[in-house]
């Protein structure tokens, strides 16, 4: 009897989760239920499962609404009916088609109109929905002759009075209005909840025809749909790249052997055997099309001259290496093909493909064009209400002022006021946790379907981007649509841009894809070993640079291990610390068990990669390949990792007993396994990252200026632009502020001079910034400030920014003089006369009194406009002339000794400990060299960070495996000189100092265990 149920996937409308809706129906003994969320099918696949578990017949539908108006309810007779409605909603969402108030000619859909929107004639499949409270209207003549086409309409939106209030709050959030201003049209009726069918039918007992029609719809509808079966490799992805399975296998085999000739010598029997073995598995699992589609995308990328990285478990496959999808030789690194693909695996393997953030859209457009917009979509994702947005949005609905909303959103609950309204905001806000708030685009998952995508879902078009499905990747996987991961990153943009810049500036072609130059370069290895990697992909963070130094990482293989060791799972388990110890003291430990020695010798008996976990599970624990595959999924962090892990835990312990292992030994082995769930890399992934890290390092070592310019233009990585400019200067660059006659929108390099781009000017509009260089390229250099004003549509505020940053220094005039000239030029200037002025006489040359500027005024201008000084260093702006007693170059000599240093703060990272928050700081001394500090909770109580700037530090040096860190006891922020531009204004003298920045990264993970808590055995059990 319930033809119109909403879940909370009717965004900002329904209040019931699918689980709760079905649970309530089961309690009331309801045997059929129709889910009709508003303009979406997000929940129908989960709904079907929940209903079948509860013994309820599921029926799928969609409530079609245009803004606030209910047009009709579409109930699918069979699954294809959902596709019919999906097409209409997709046309509305993506193509701007109008939503007709009258339903289309549906073949497999029942249509139910509300009494407010009855068409003149009803088709055979169309009915009118009558609510109980509308029955008294049926005595009217216009309705009497339509009773034979009526059904019971008992919508379901909420279940309690409190949820009804929550519904009203959701509607106020949706309408961006106050609760008190909601109209009846904005909200559902108070009768929209589940009730017993007996009572509902009793209300309609005088209209048996209406009851009969309702039952007829319920009996004639079904939701037959095949989910992906466990153990089956059948899926709903595009089946064939060519026309058939045979043609696909033939093409894949041909391409694989052609690639084998290029990648290896024709006599390499090991490689040939592995290719043959892999092709057999790929063929048996019918995954040829998946490989070929990926290969096709990469071929297009190569034709366009784009650089890509194929990473993830895909790099375990020699076939993907031969096809050019990946650049990692699986034989060289002994990569485990079974981690990627095995006969127990039913889902297609994952190829994670990265492009530069500048090229990714071109790749996506190719995929949509090549495989057809009807068959391709992004996976969706449900964005939930978050803590801050909940209190802000709910508070706004209650009419709280902005100041109070800011307090609610930014402060902890303990700091909130406790008046009646705030209590209600908190009470209803808590109910909204985990509610979906909006649908968004999955970061990288693309679906390429055999059937049109609208067969399964309506599509939506986000403000920027490509069409998205209305369900997430978990539902997509359940129903058999497996995603392709098309990602973007700035690291590749940096590499790409550097290679192009080297070619443009030096005429040198660097083949960065040639893996022989990015694996074993003596000078690169020297940089690695001392952590000289700022700007390099994945290896520039303070933690990573510290790890490289502790390992004296001087080759590619150790870099591969380091890329995985730094991951939270390895560090959390204590295995990172243990790896460092064993790497530096290879003779001071024994292997835990012979299986660990045989399988993990390369990593000193420590599980570092996901493959290590699977090897130990199989060879130490005796688990089956199927259980090993469950472990693989747990390792990947997909779905519910810990839950997946627990599925195999009992099998592991039982199997270990049969192997003759003691309970103590088994518990220790499983503890190590468990710590990995969801937080480790497979070895191939680490290897892919290591290749890209080494490529960027190679460019940094041999072409440092081109590299740093590219890092700046790709908006850096871990650090702010200031740090990369400092790094360029340390490499010999002369850094110039933007100049209207030289600079471009992006930063450029002229021999050793780096001209900062207009993009670094925080308040300059992008449009104006790009126009300055375009106009100069078209019509020649600017001759004067006046010439510039005539040619560029610009106001006094923007002119001031350019004057104060020194962009008109080519005129030889001082900034003060230029400012007066600009104001005189613009005083009577009308924009509509700009082109006329071009043929007029120049304005008279004003004679101005000499206006002197203080030495450091430029530095404060720069601080205000770009966020940091460029003509002076931060040390130059200190009141004190003291520069520290010890410098970074000598730190290794001061192990366990107290030192006093003066340093500029670069970044700090928050780290949770059992005693409270601590921080790791990264600094530079006056010579520009980097060093790191540790600030423990007791020290921070008295000597906390006071924002960006220079500090006097007192601490003890601890050299941990070649890497010095200073444990800080005391620190004080050093005073800077007052701003000379405001010498006579006491209030503004120190304003600019608040603009000095620092990078702060926070983390919410649990504290890592201490060495004594880990107790990782260093001897045989």
UniProtKB/TrEMBL annotation:
Stored Pfam families: DNA_pol3_alpha, DNA_pol3_finger, HHH_6, PHP
EC number(s) given by UniProt: 2.7.7.7
SUPFAM superfamilies: PHP domain-like (SSF89550)
Highest taxon listed in the record's lineage: Bacteria
Residue ranges occupied by any Polymerase/histidinol phosphatase N-terminal domain in the UniProt entry: 1-68
Catalytic activity: DNA(n) + a 2'-deoxyribonucleoside 5'-triphosphate = DNA(n+1) + diphosphate
GO molecular function, one term: DNA-directed DNA polymerase activity
Keyword terms, alphabetized: DNA replication, DNA-directed DNA polymerase, Nucleotidyltransferase, Transferase
PANTHER family per the UniProt record, alphabetical: DNA POLYMERASE III SUBUNIT ALPHA
Official protein name in the record: DNA-directed DNA polymerase
Species in which this protein is naturally found: Chryseobacterium edaphi
């Amino acid at each position: 009897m319930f033809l119109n149920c909403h879940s909370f996937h009717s965004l900002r409308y329904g209040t019931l989760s699918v689980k709760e809706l079905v649970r309530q129906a089961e309690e009331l003994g309801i045997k059929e239920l129709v889910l009709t969320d508003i303009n979406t099918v997000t929940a129908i696949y989960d709904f079907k499962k929940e209903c079948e578990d509860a013994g309820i017949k599921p029926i799928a539908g969609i409530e079609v609404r245009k803004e606030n108006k209910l047009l009709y309810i579409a109930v699918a007779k069979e699954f294809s009916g959902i596709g019919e409605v999906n097409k209409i909603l997709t046309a509305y969402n993506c193509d701007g088609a109008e939503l007709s108030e009258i339903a289309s000619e549906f073949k497999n859909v029942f249509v139910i109109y509300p009494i407010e929107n009855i068409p003149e004639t009803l088709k055979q499949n169309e009915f009118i929905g009558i609510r109980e409270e509308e029955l008294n209207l049926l005595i009217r003549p216009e309705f009497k002759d339509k009773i034979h086409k009526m059904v019971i309409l008992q919508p379901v939106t909420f279940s309690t009075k409190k949820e009804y209030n929550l519904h009203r709050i959701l509607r106020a959030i949706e309408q961006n209005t106050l609760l008190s201003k909601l109209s009846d049209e904005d909200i559902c009726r108070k009768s929209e909840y589940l009730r017993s069918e007996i009572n509902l039918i009793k209300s309609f007992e005088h209209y048996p025809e209406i009851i009969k029609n309702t039952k007829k719809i319920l009996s004639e509808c079904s939701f037959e749909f095949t989910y992906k079966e466990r153990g089956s490799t059948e899926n709903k992805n595009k089946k064939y790249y060519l026309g058939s399975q045979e043609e696909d296998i033939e093409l894949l085999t041909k391409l694989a052997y052609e690639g084998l000739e290029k990648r290896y010598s024709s006599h390499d029997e090991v490689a040939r055997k592995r290719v043959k073995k892999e092709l057999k598995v790929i063929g048996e699992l019918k995954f040829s099309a998946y490989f070929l589609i990926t290969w096709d995308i990469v071929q297009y990328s190569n034709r366009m001259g784009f650089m890509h990285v194929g990473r993830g478990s895909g790099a375990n496959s020699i076939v993907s290496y031969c096809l050019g999808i990946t650049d990692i030789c699986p034989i060289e690194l002994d990569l485990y093909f079974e981690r990627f693909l095995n006969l127990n695996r039913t889902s297609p393997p994952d190829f994670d493909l990265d492009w530069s953030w500048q090229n990714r859209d071109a790749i996506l457009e190719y995929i949509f064009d090549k495989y057809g917009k009807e068959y391709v979509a992004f996976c969706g994702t449900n964005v939930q209400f978050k803590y801050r947005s909940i209190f802000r949005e709910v508070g706004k609905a209650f009419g709280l002022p902005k100041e109070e909303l800011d307090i609610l959103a930014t402060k902890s609950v303990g700091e909130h006021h406790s008046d009646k309204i705030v209590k209600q905001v908190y009470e209803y806000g808590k109910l909204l946790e985990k509610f979906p708030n909006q649908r968004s685009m999955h970061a990288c998952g693309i679906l390429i379907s055999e059937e049109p995508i609208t067969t399964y879902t309506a599509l939506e078009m986000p403000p920027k981007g490509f069409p998205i499905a209305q369900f997430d990747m978990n539902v997509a996987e359940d129903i058999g649509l497996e995603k392709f991961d098309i990602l973007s990153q700035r690291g590749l943009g940096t590499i790409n841009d550097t290679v192009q810049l080297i070619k443009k500036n030096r005429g040198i072609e660097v083949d960065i894809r040639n893996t022989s130059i990015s694996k074993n370069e003596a000078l690169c290895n020297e940089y690695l070993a001392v952590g000289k990697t700022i700007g390099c992909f994945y290896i520039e963070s303070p933690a990573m640079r510290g790890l490289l130094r502790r390992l004296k990482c001087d080759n590619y293989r150790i870099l591969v291990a380091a890329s995985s060791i730094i991951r939270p799972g390895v560090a959390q388990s204590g295995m990172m610390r243990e790896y460092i110890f064993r790497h530096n003291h290879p003779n001071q430990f024994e292997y835990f068990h012979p299986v660990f020695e045989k399988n993990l010798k390369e990593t000193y008996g420590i599980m570092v990669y996901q493959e290590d976990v699977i090897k130990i599970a199989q060879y130490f624990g005796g688990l089956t390949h199927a259980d090993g595959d469950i472990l693989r999924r747990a390792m990947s962090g997909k779905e519910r990792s810990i839950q997946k892990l627990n599925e195999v835990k009992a099998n592991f312990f039982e199997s270990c007993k049969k192997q003759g292992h003691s309970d103590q030994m088994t518990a220790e082995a499983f503890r190590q396994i468990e710590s990995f769930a969801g937080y480790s890399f497979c070895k191939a992934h680490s290897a892919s990252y290591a290749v890209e890290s080494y490529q960027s390092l190679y460019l940094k070592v041999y072409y440092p200026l081109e590299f740093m310019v590219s890092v700046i233009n790709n908006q850096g990585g871990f650090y702010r632009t200031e740090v990369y400019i400092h790094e360029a200067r340390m490499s010999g660059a002369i850094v110039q502020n933007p100049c209207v006659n030289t600079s471009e929108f992006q930063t450029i390099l002229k021999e050793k001079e780096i001209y900062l781009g207009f993009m670094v000017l925080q308040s300059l509009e992008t449009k104006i910034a790009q126009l300055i260089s375009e106009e100069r390229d078209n019509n020649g250099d600017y001759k004067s400030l006046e010439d510039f004003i005539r040619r560029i549509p610009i106001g006094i505020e923007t002119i001031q920014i350019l004057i104060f940053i020194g962009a008109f220094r080519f005129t030889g005039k001082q900034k003060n003089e230029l400012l007066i000239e600009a104001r005189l030029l613009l005083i009577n200037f009308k924009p509509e006369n700009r082109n006329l002025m071009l043929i007029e006489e120049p304005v008279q040359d004003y004679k101005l009194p000499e206006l002197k500027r203080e030495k450091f005024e430029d530095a404060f201008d720069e601080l205000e406009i770009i966020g940091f000084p460029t003509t002076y260093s931060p040390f130059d702006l200190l009141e004190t002339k003291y520069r520290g007693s010890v410098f970074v170059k000598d730190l290794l000599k001061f192990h366990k000794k107290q030192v006093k240093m003066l340093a500029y703060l670069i970044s700090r990272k928050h780290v949770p400990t059992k005693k409270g928050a601590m921080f790791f700081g990264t600094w530079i001394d006056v010579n520009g060299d980097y060093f790191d500090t540790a600030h423990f909770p007791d020290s921070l109580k008295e000597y906390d960070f006071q924002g960006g700037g220079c500090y006097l530090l007192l601490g003890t040096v601890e050299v941990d495996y070649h890497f010095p860190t200073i444990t800080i006891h005391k620190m004080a922020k050093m005073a800077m000189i007052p701003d000379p531009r405001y010498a006579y204004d006491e209030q503004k003298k120190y304003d600019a100092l608040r603009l000095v920045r620092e990078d702060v990264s926070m983390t919410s993970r649990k504290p890592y265990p201490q060495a004594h808590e880990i107790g990782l055995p260093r001897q045989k059990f």
